[in-house]
Amino acid sequence: MPKLTLLVLLLVSALALASAQSGTVMSTYNLYEPEKHNWDLMAVSAFCSTWDANQPLSWRSRYGWTAFCGPVGPHGEAACGKCLRVRNTRTGDEQIARIVDQCSNGGLDLDISVFQSLDSDGNGNAQGHLIVHYEFVECGD
């Protein structure tokens, strides 16, 4: 019985930790347009360029970019390079985005291309923001 109790406690702890790494927030968009800047973090003055500017092009271009300032998850340097699965709560559209910057809006500031791919009904563009659910995921690098 003690082993079963321990297993249950471990599962509950894992679920609590997983839920602690996600949230629902407002997302705006930013004109990083990395494809126009050869995916150069320094060219767009991204906060994370200090640590990630020398990552290979394949790493920098694998996912769209976002600034992160959500209420749940790491911030500052600890967030740099991490990936988020971002889902538009209205349409269900999903994208994975890489954190390359920080923001101050309390949510996400997605690159315009990521924002547009999530905004399949145009409502986000009309309102100037989306309501999204984010979840930290493995980048697979």
UniProtKB/TrEMBL annotation:
Gene Ontology MF, one: RNA nuclease activity
Record-annotated Barwin domain positions: 20-141
Name of the protein described by the UniProt record: Barwin domain-containing protein
Species of provenance: Clitoria ternatea (Butterfly pea)
Keywords assigned: Disulfide bond, Signal
Family annotation (Gene3D superfamilies): RlpA-like domain (2.40.40.10)
Sections of the chain in a coiled coil: none
Signal peptide start and end residues: 1-20
Pfam families documented for this protein: Barwin (PF00967)
Domain of life of the source: Eukaryota
GO biological process, one term: defense response to bacterium
